[in-house]
Amino acid sequence: MGKVKRSPWLLHYDASSCNGCDIEVLACMTPVYDVERFGVVNTADPMQADILLVTGGVNSQSAEVVKQLYDQMARPKVVVAVGICACTGGVFKDCYNINGGVDTVIPVDVYVPGCAARPESIIDGVVKAVQIFQERSDAHDKYVKEHGESERNLNDPDAAAREGNPADFFDAITKTSEGSRNKEAEKK
Amino acid sequence: MEEREKKRSVVPFGPQHPVLPEPIHLDLVLEDEKVVDVIPSIGFIHRGLEDLVKKRDFNEYVYVAERTCGICSFGHGLGYVEAVEKCMNVEVPIRAKYLRTIWSEMSRIHSHLLWAGLMADAFGFENLFYQCWRLREKNLDLVEMTTGGRLIYSVNKVGGVLKDITPDMQKVILNNLSELEAELRDVYKTFMTDYSVQERTRGVGVLTKEQVHDLGCCGPYARASGVARDIRQLGYEAYGELDFEPVVSNDGDNYARCDVRLREVFQSIDLIRQAIAKIPNGELSVPVKGNPDGEAFIRIEQPRGEAIYYVEGNGTKFLNRFRLRTPTFANIPGMCETMKGCSYADIPLLVVTIDPCISCTER
Amino acid sequence: MSAKFTPKETIRVIEKDGLLREVMAMKSRGMRLSQACASYKDGKYELSYSFSDDETLDYETLRVVCDLADRIPSIHDFYSCASFYENEMRELFGVKIELIEPDYHNKLYRIKAETPFLPEDAKAEQKKQEQEISLSGADSDLDLAQAAADEKLASGKKEEK
To answer: Where is the secretion signal located (chain A) (predicted)?
Structure first.
């Protein structure tokens, strides 16, 4: 893997999983398998996380939650689908309530098969995700260096449509504060 | 003097929360910091797998039934095949019964140690969490040696079992269990005597014996309140030939529940030793002809409590109905009852103390 | 050796109108409600209410065989934990259970499919039977009671918010 530059934080969410893959993900954090030696920490806050681990297929209730968690994470971000249910729907693909794998809702970068996925495979998947995360961070740093500003469409082509231009946002704030300063000056 | 009018607020808890491995949503109605009412919202893990009996024939369906839950997986597979065997009047060989009993107890050890770790994590004792899960790995090594899988065993089939535990494996099992038992004594001592554990668990979430009966609770949750009932006493599989008593405590609080579950791990180790000493030689399975017709109810003592399996056949290779009532489904009313009147900070502990298995509940 | 149990396991078919009486008898004998489920077979619902005796581990199941549009009363007055089972039966199978407390109004699991365990031809048959009943004007008292209970629950929720 070479040199590890940044330590990404993990967020784990269970979307209709049987719990097998979740327990194996938790087992990765414990002494015997220990994924923390790669600098990876398990966090509960989506806004602090860089890698999203999703287990289980997507059903009508969890589709919105998964999408919301993905949107709350800051870019660059990587998604890992752990277990065969998260990849394609698995054994439950024919159930009336399962839409399919996680890639029906959000873009997935790493697929880890298995039922339940073994901790060794999960660590393999996380290491790949760490590599992808480093590449994306490096690309982002390079862009900032060249253009002098953050590139918002880096991984997410829909970002521009959802968010405004950061420059406009700062302009608006400056105008408002200038406007209120002028008003106060007039009053005096 | 006028009392300040208390305002009520509704706080959502879940589905994504640090202490919950599974998504469940609770709407907590609070008056200041005290919880007045709890409205649970389940459905995040509902896959509707009971409907798959119409698309998978009764032999293949074992694999679906096992994957209802990754923690109680062996029990679900066992309950399902037992129900189909009862429906078809199939008599399983005695060696297969003993093997199923041994795997059942290994499943119980792994589940209780998993719960003990999550409980320790819930009150912030990370070191104890890691120790419990490190011991659990020893148990999982035994499972992997005998079945090939860590959580999903896939050794049950209608008519018997698919794999054997050879005498060499039995020696390894006995050695490993002795090591596990020795280290577990330290963990048990920490749980029962450590000051920080006692502060968070004594006197919290008390349920009396009458409340437990009215609310229909089962398993270690009920046994911690003095109900001396263990479905293994029915004598299914090889339990009728083993010697054990239900593990009971009378206090009914979180501390008592920790005590009951950890003592059950010691009991499981003892049961495995008894089974290995008594296991006879014989066939692993019998051939099964025909299709299930009729209905059957089976009760099994899962690590979390009494699980009920109902199978209804109609003479074809697809069953008409498979119904699984899991222990967490029966314990949720008890959980909501313990939450009324408690403080907000105790909510995560009260959720973890019923040993919730939401994927079992919602299927 | 540990104590041996030889429990009796029975399934007894009862009439729909005798359900509450039988459940009251179970309650007075100290039985615990173990599970309640529904099944669809040959054009009718088969409801099973199972009770367990904690001392002897006996297991008795009451079986109610009813038509698709029959109204079944809730047993939560005797067993408060029955509400989850009844909500599930109604949401997944479409069994017409009335006066459940608390009533989730088919939002226990919040699934998109409606009564997924009932086959399509059975759904059509159920609608037909309901129309016949409403034309004949039967069971209107239960409707009124249901409406009153719904209103009470809705106003109670508004108060809390």
So the answer is: none
CA distance C112 to chain A (A): 7
What strand order describes the sheet that includes C9-14?
A: C9-14, C59-66, C44-52, C32-41
Q: Tell me, what's the ipTM?
A: 0.84
Q: Which of B206, B225, B229, B226 is nearest to B306 (CA)?
A: B229
Tokens 């409600």 locate to C33
C-alpha closest to that of B328 among B359, B295, B296, B293: B359
Q: CATH number of the domain at B58-321, out of 1.10.645.10, 3.90.1310.10, 3.40.50.920, 3.20.20.220?
A: 1.10.645.10
Q: How far is the C-alpha of A97 from the C-alpha of A58, rounded, in Å? A: 9
From A144's Cα to the closest Cα of chain B, the distance in A is 34
CATH topology of domain C9-160: Beta Polymerase; domain 2 (3.30.460)
All residues of chain C having their beta carbon less than 8 Å from the beta carbon of residue B215 are 80-81
**Is B87 annotated as contributing to ligand binding?**
no
Reading chain B (363 residues) residue by residue, the pLDDT tens digits are 445 666 788 888 877 776 676 777 888 888 877 888 888 877 778 888 888 888 888 889 999 999 888 888 999 999 999 999 998 998 999 999 999 999 999 999 999 999 999 888 888 888 888 889 889 998 999 999 999 889 998 899 999 999 998 999 999 999 999 999 999 998 898 888 888 888 888 888 888 888 888 888 888 888 988 888 888 888 888 888 888 888 888 888 888 888 999 999 999 999 999 999 999 999 888 998 888 888 899 999 999 988 999 999 888 889 888 988 988 888 888 888 888 888 888 888 888 888 888 888 887
Closest Cα in chain A to B18: A44
Contacts of C112 (CB under 8 A, 6+ apart): A60, A97
